[in-house]
Every structure is written in C-alpha cells, then in structure tokens.
Amino acid sequence: MKLKSLMLGAAAAFALTPAAYAERGADGEVKIIYWQAPSTLNPYLSGGTKDVESASMIIEPLARYNETGELVPWLVEEVPTTANGGVSEDLTSITWKIKPGITWSDGSAFTSADVAFTHEYCTHPEGGCAQLTKFGGVKSVETPDDLTVVVTFEGPTPNPYGPFVGGESPILQKAQFANCLGAAGSTCTEQNFGPIGTGAFKVDDFKPNDVIIMSANDNYRDPAKPAFSKVTFKGGGDAAAAGRAVLETGEFDYAWNLQLAPDVIAEMEKGGKGKPVAGFGPLLERIMLNNTNPDPALGPDERSVIRPHPFLSDPAVYKAMSMALDRPLLVEVGYGQAGRVSCSWVPAPAAYAIDVEGCDVQDIDGANKLLDDAGIVDTDGDGVREKDGVPLSILYQTSTNAVRQDFQALIKEWWGMIGIQTELRNIEGSVFFGGDAGSPDTFQKFYADVEMYANTFNGTDPQSYMGNGLCDKAPSPATQWQGENISRFCSEEYDAIHAELSTTADMAKRAELAQKLNTIAFEEGMMIPLVQRGRVSAHSNTLGGVVLNVWDSELWNVADWHRIK
Questions:
Q1: pLDDT, position 479
Q2: What letters, b where the CB count within 10 A reaches 16 and e where it falls short, cover 516-542?
Q3: Whole-model pTM?
Q4: What is the CA radius of gyration of the chain?
C-alpha cells in the first residue's frame, strides 16, 4: 500500500463533493468509529485528540485550518491580517468580525460575549485548562459590540492565531457554561457531555467511553447542510476492529487513526467496502520521559510532582536509551510508507524540523559505553545497571494498540541489551487519553517512568504547541491534572527562547528559534522521538465529501459529508 495512492484517494473524495445539497438530513445516518472513545465533549478539559475531534462536530472556533494548512474563516467574515487592518501594525492586537446571523443550536444568538467568556473559562486561575497555551500572552479580550472581538496581547505577537483558532480552541456558550468557571469546570457533567454549539450537529445522548448520538443542528448557518440527519459516533475497541468495520464489513462509514501495520490495512482493503486515506503532518510518535519521581511510595498528590527523577535526569541514561533504538525497524514494523524516522519533536513543516545525526542508526555498543563512562554500571551482577544505588528499572506505559505493543516489546529487548530493566503496561486508550482527574491511569498524571503516544497540533506554526514545554504548564493537583507539559520538563533556557519566539516576526528567525527548542527537547530529556506518522484513516465507498486534514480536526468539514448514491 503506497502513501501516494492514499493521498489520491483523499483527492478523489474531495472531487465527489457536490456544489449543493437537496435538503438537510436527506441522507439519513452516518456512522463514525474512533477506537479511542471520547470521554468528554469539552476539549478544554482534555488533551486527547479523540475528545477534541468529536467535539469539533458540535462546537467550533472562529477560524480553522484547511487540508493544505491554510487558515480560513469559519465563524468570522475573514481572517484578520495586517494587510486588511485586522491585526494592528504594532502586532499587539487582533480584531475578529463575527459573521452576522450565526446562532447556537438552541436558537440563541452567537455573540462576542461567548468568545470573551471562553477566554475567561480557559484562563481562570483555579481551573485546569488543557489548552491554556492557546491563550499565552493574552492581556485582554474585549467586545466593542456583539459582532466584534478584540484580543490584545502583552507585547508584539507575530503569530496572533492561538486563541479561538483550530479544533483545540473552540467557543463555549456563555449561558451554558457560566457556572462552570475554575474548579467547578470538571463537575459540570451536563455541560461537558452535551455542549450547545454552532456546528453541523448537536448532541442527543453521550455515554462517555462508549457512544455519542447526534442529530443535525436545525439552526446550522447553511440551510442545506448537513446532509446527514443522524450521527452514531462509536468509541472503543481497537484499531483493527475499526478498520474492518469500514473496509471489510461496511458497518461504519468512517474509521479514524488506523494505527495498524501497512500489510494489515492492505489486506482489509481487499474487502472492497472502503478505502484508506493518509497524509503527513506534524504527528509524532514519541516516548515521554518523566522528569519527576513517580515512585508509588509517594502520596497521590506527590507522584509526578516531586523532582528530580532518580535516574532519568541523567543525560547518559536517556541518550543511551535513544541510541539503543532501531528506528528504521520501528517504521517498517509499524507504519511502512506511512512512517518516517524522526528525532524532531516538530517534524513538519520542514522549516521547523531538525536533523539529528545518527537518528536512523542503532548503536548498542555506543549506548553501553556511554553508560559505562558515566559510572552507571551493574554492581551486583543481576544484569541491571544502577545509578547511585538505584536500579535502572523502568515502568513503560502506553495505550492498548497492536502497533504500540509491538514497539514496547522491541524497545524492552533493546533496553535490556544496555542493562535497563523494563516493565510494560498498556492502558485502554479511552482511559489513557481521558481527562478524568480522579483516574490514576491518564497520560497527564504520568504515573510511570516513560510513556509512549503520538501528538500533533493545529495549523502550521508550532509556537503554541512548543509552549507545551514551558515550566509552568505541567499538570498538577492544582490544575485538576490538566496541562500540556506532560513530562514536567523545565528549562530556563527553553522558556527564554520560547518567549523570544513569541515576539519574533521574521520567518527565518522564527524557524531558527523553533529548531533550537526542538533540539533542547531532544538533547535535554523531554522526550525520545520515534516516528513521524502519517495519519491513516478510512471511509466507506459510499461516503462522499471526506477531505483528510492533518492540520486540524479530521472531522473539520463533516457538514460537507454526504452519501454517494
């Protein structure tokens, strides 16, 4: 299966999109399956992609990115720029003009007050907002009238498209969420499970970690859309079952994130019911390194908060762990043409990526020598090295998935060859990527030494995304365990470079600064990058209008989906 053919499949689907639809809801039901089940429909309470994407069918941002990475207006008249006067000449403010006549699904008017409230909601000091970096540097959000939003920054901001842009930063209805500010946010079950939105669909029923039933939004701004009257959004299971449900049995119309070996997908495609689609963006499979101490002997509010980690804070350890990996084999085993070796946290766009010498070469002998030279040796003959008397024994967790378990098995073997003992743990994806502050098994709490997953960002500028490495963005009890700095990495140099990036307009200089941040993340122990992954999903042969988008939510244009007769 060739990645090029998958890309052509996406283009063909786009070509089948009709110019107009006969009437809203005429095509009946569409069935979507995400094998990582959504746990909330409020993306401000979860960093999980499955939560962000399911919510994107209901609540929307002011602007978003299309399939080419271009920023396009969504709930506004146009994208503000310095050329059209929407961004001030001194780069300290951006003014959004909302399209007249947009309503919420309950029929009430969508206004600038809702936009300003969303900023207040996410930045509340007692809350735990999973998307807080989107609002970095914002001084105020003002509403001169019902259709105007003025965002003022603390200083010149060359990239003002963080707040209210992309699927990760949608608008919440003020009337619905007014009593959900701060610590109360996670207790607002009715609101979080059934947000009122401006999107093509509205929630009828939501069973967390199971199924969402939606119906067409009668107040959607385009009277001819959506073509479907009902959505069944099924969550759970595994990637193989999801792929079969679209490609072989035709039970579902769309399956997300087919994290399967390429030969498996090719065999499924022979079922004749659907086709895979793929595209490369900044999605990176990585191993996050816990910079704090997850010792179970510590209290629940101390694990992954107390610093430092007993041995992962030593560069010799994490560099040896990286050197021991055979990344080309990981690509071959896990992704084939839909994977690329990468040691760059942000592998795309290319201007921001870094090339790391030796990234594609496994060096077991070099890794062993590095540890020997650092005095991290096996003193008792049990095959496990110790640092300051602490055995290099690692708990390595990830979500339940066939490819990830294959990766775990290989990496455990390679780390064993350099004297590191590894215990493997896998957690059901809906739980691992969920936002439940009471669960000990979420990737945010990180009750392990290392954990593996993939992550990406909306759009083509990585500034907000790279803010995930800032010292003050680490999840903690005080933030309801929300926050983007999953590894609890902290570097004054990193913070200073990111601050410079946020005020730099020159594109060449921005690329240089982003590459420096990329280098620090790799060289100083935030993570061990593994594979740049192409997004691979699948849709039925009878589902038209699908345009795979690697720069925003995959469901970004669900209003255009229709049944091919």
A1: 85
A2: bbbbbbbebbbbbbbbbbbbbbbbbee
A3: 0.80
A4: 23
